Amino acid sequence: MQFAHKLLSTRGGTVAVAAVGALLAAAVFIAYLNRYRSTVNDSAAPMTVLVAKDFIEKGTPGNVVGSQGLFQTASTPKDDLKEGAISDPDSLGGLVATTDIYPGQQLTVADFGPTPADALTNEIAGDERAISMALDSAHGMIGNVRAGDRVDVYGAFNVRRLRPDGTVDPDAVERPVLKLLVEDVLVLDSPEGAKAGFGAGAQQTSNVTVRVSHEQAARLAFSSENGKVWIVLRPRTGGSPTPPDIVTLETVLFGVEPVAAAKSFGGGK
């Protein structure tokens, strides 16, 4: 205390004390300035975020958003990030859009919610469609075919010969024909057990749902409505291609080539 009093009682001491105070003030100011700059730099630092590339309709599964390229990554200042902004596309798995999302909009956790694990919309994207066919236990292999299996689908019809102009010859006799409709398609859903019984009980049907393209879906719908559909189980992996030949009485009994049989109906193949 006496030292401080003696120091301040002289002009040199006062100047020294003032100089030390100025140095301390400068140090505090520099520290504040560095912290301020750091805060500004942090808020301006670029952050990665997922942004909608195209319109994402409410109800769109998260895995479809990823597989169809409906988003793109973008860099934005930290201060411009929306709360809950999504940066990892893998986090969209098992979710579904709960609101419409517009191009340029940041994807956030608030835009998505859980979706039922068994929702068929999780299994299709783009031009893929899910279609159910009502099949009896034999035609649909009910109880043997399960979700995840791969199958070929055949259609059986009674067909008359075509005239050169493409119309049906009214004088021709109907002949049975079997044709491969779709090859190597994924079963999305099928009953676990067959309905037992003979006679009337054996005619009961169950729905088998498969994943096909939109064109194949129309083909299967027509065949289910106007013919008889068969499902044939394939190996899950490594199955060889199925020849797209037609089968007729002539090809089975007499070894007639499928091309010749097709031409006998007026077809070109």
Model description:
The chain is an alpha+beta fold and 269 residues long. It folds into two domains: 46-120, Antifreeze-like/N-acetylneuraminic acid synthase C-terminal domain (Type Iii Antifreeze Protein Isoform Hplc 12, Alpha-Beta Complex), CATH 3.90.1210.10; 127-264, no CATH class. The protein is 27% helix and 27% strand. It is built from six helices and ten strands; from the N terminus they run H-H-E-H-E-E-E-E-E-E-E-H-E-E-H-H. The chain has helices spanning 2-8, 11-44, 62-67, 214-226, 249-253, 258-264, and strands at 46-52, 71-77, 95-97, 112-114, 128-136, 150-159, 175-189, 205-213, 228-234, 246-248. The strands form three sheets. Strands 5, 6, 7, 8, 9 and 10 form a six-stranded antiparallel β-sheet that branches. A two-stranded antiparallel ribbon has the order 1-2. The radius of gyration is 36 Å and the shape is rod-shaped. The termini are far apart. The mean pLDDT is 83.
Radius of gyration: 36 Å
Helix-strand pattern, N to C? HHEHEEEEEEEHEEHH
Structural class label: alpha+beta
* Mean model confidence by pLDDT: 83
Model regions low in confidence, pLDDT < 50 over at least 5 residues? none
Measured by DSSP, the beta-strand proportion falls in 25-35%
Helix content: 25-40%
Distance N to C terminus: 114 Å
Shape: rod-shaped
